[in-house]
Amino acid sequence: MGNLIIPGETALCGRLYKEWLRQQGIDGVPPESVNQPAVGLKNIRNMCFLNAIIQTLYFTPMLRRNLALALGSVPVKDEWLISLLQIFRELDESRSTGMPVVASRIAGLIQVASTNGEFQQGAQADAHEAFMVIISKLLSGCIAAKGLSFPEQEQMERSSLIGHIFGMNLGQSVRCKSCGDESTTTRAEYCLCVTCAPPTASRQANAPVTPSTHEATTKTAKMLPSSLTRAFTKTQKSASSASDKAKPSKKFPKPNLFTIDDLLGMYTQREEIQEWKCEKCEQEGCTRRAFVAERPNVLLIHVGRPGQDAAMPRVVFDAELDLSRYLDAEGSSQKRYSLFSVIVYRSLGRGGHYFAYVRSGRGNGQQWNQVDDDEVKMVSWAAVQQEDPFMLIYEAPEIMSPMATDMELKLLKEQEQSKLLAEARQQVAVAAAESKMEENSQMATPEASVE
């Protein structure tokens, strides 16, 4: 890397993070599963949403491994990263006693992060919003954001330890129906949000869906200093502006039952937008589709349910999810992600309650556990499948390398060009030296014959 400096880089992002992965011998190496049994967390005044998130993070193998190794080998001062590793260690230590742990430090941090009282003790909170705020804070702890433009910060976050685990790029293409001109845009995301609408509701097939209400989205967006801000605000605007103009290219067949594949299919299917004007030919009408441009190592899916309709369809899921059919590349080989956590929301009159199911082990040795605050019990996979999911969390079949930023690619190109230029100069110098030697040799030959 030499002495070239890229703004925003730290030991936990960019080239330094990639070099750290190589030094640790874990670049591209799948992590071992979390094999320990679950330990409960005390509910601190209606913060069940936080407990469900912590349990999910604790049972994320790649996060457990990389975070522990990083904080043990490089200087880290960020309080979110340190606090998360601390609660992981407390959960490990409490396993011998079986006593539940109090996540007071992270609870305090998320209360400070709350701008409108969303995550204050005793207040009703949305686990998806809280999850996104936590990821945003962890991302911020991995980079030096000062002085970076928004695109630079977004890319630096994607190249970081946290971005390497949860980050993905979602894309959208718009194609004019008249001239065929097509434009494609991508954005960094850390959760794939789909919507499960009641049978009578208007279904937005391709518009990415964020939290269930615009008010919640606006409040959360104010707390997100990173690329997540644009994800919340842009997708909400996209969903609302397209509501009367976009129509799916095909109707959904089962109004009372959705599978996750159904919802992802609705998200990625082509839709027609009649009141769209092409900048090239100035004709109206286009087709739009959404897709996964770059898939993550750990996939978060949030199932949004607008309103509290009693006729809300049920969502069913399997232990594996093949993401290949939703990727941009045609004919992609199977990418079978394995489910390891399910966050559930239960409506309880005026309020509600969050808890999680987490998987320890893999394959034949796996065991599912229900973690409901300080109550922990082993359950069967069949019991997990009976639940209606709020969030589903999967791990990839293999580990993909961290993203390379534009600045990193530019420097690599410049270094390669400098290397080629140096080699060319050396070749010229060698050729000149050889030519000089040959010239001297020819001049010396007649003198030798005279003697």
Give a short summary of the structure:
The chain has 451 residues and is of the alpha+beta class. It contains 13 helices and 15 strands.
Measured between the Cα atoms of the first and last residue, the distance is 58 Å
Element order, helices and strands?
A: HHHHHHHHEEEHHEEHEEEEEEEEEHEH
Q: pLDDT under 50 segments (min length 5)?
A: 199-253
Helix % is: 25-40%
Instruction: Give the class from helix and strand content and strand pairing.
Output: alpha+beta
Number of strands: 15
Rough outline: globular
Alpha carbon gyration radius: 27 Å
Strand fraction band? 15-25%
The averaged pLDDT comes out at 82
Question: What would your notes on this structure say?
Answer:
- The chain has helices at residues 14-24, 48-58, 61-71, 79-93, 104-113, 127-140, 150-158, 161-166, 214-221, 227-241, 260-268, 381-385, 406-450; strands at residues 168-176, 182-189, 192-195, 246-248, 257-259, 271-277, 284-294, 298-304, 314-316, 320-322, 336-348, 351-360, 367-372, 375-379, 389-395.
- It is globular.
- Strands 3, 8, 10, 11, 12, 13, 14 and 15 form an 8-stranded mixed β-sheet that branches.
- The protein is an alpha+beta fold and 451 residues long.
- The model is unreliable at 199-253 (pLDDT under 50).
- Helix 3 (61-71) packs across helix 4 (79-93) and helix 9 packs antiparallel against helix 10 (227-241).
